[in-house]
Amino acid sequence: MAVRSDKTGVRNRVAYEVLNNISSVDLLYDERKKQRTVGIYQAERLIARRKDREGWKYFVKWAGYSSFDNTWEPQGHLSPALLRYFEKPDPSQDVVLDCMDSLRREILSCLKRKDLNNEFL
Questions:
Q1: pLDDT for residue 23 is more than 70
Q2: Residue 72: beta bridge partners?
Q3: Would you kindly state where each structural domain of the chain is located, as residue ranges?
Q4: Which pLDDT score, from 0 to 100, does residue 41 have?
Q5: CA 63, 47, 33, 31 torsion: positive or negative?
Q6: Is 62:82 a contact under the CB 8 Å cutoff?
Q7: For the structural domain made of 41-89, what CATH number should be given?
Q8: CA dihedral for 65, 60, 73, 30, sign (positive or negative)
Q9: What are the tens digits of pLDDT across the range 37-88?
Q10: Which of 26, 32, 78, 33 is nearest to 52 (CA)?
Q11: Residues in CB range of 79: below 8 A, 6 or more apart
């Protein structure tokens, strides 16, 4: 058992299992303070997953919003494609080749800048 103090200074015992299941996201995010709005929003990506008594919930980064606006959403609120990509990310070969080309260009650009800087030394 661990001991923690609440806001009033009273020391309470806390099971280590509870402490192990808490993430830093839980410490920064309070569901009661979030306003509920109805609508359809585009998710940028899923960041984390946790299971509670209601089922699986996913921590969602919303497109066009700050990371402070991320929310825990139940599995039923998310598209099957988004869930599938989180569980088994499998980029297409075109995406991988584009990334490789971009990386290659950046490496060559850095090497050229390094050569130019060495000439002036």
A1: no
A2: 59
A3: 41-89, 91-120
A4: 85
A5: positive
A6: no
A7: 2.40.50.40
A8: negative
A9: 667 888 889 999 999 898 999 999 999 898 899 999 999 999 988 898 888 8
A10: 26
A11: 43
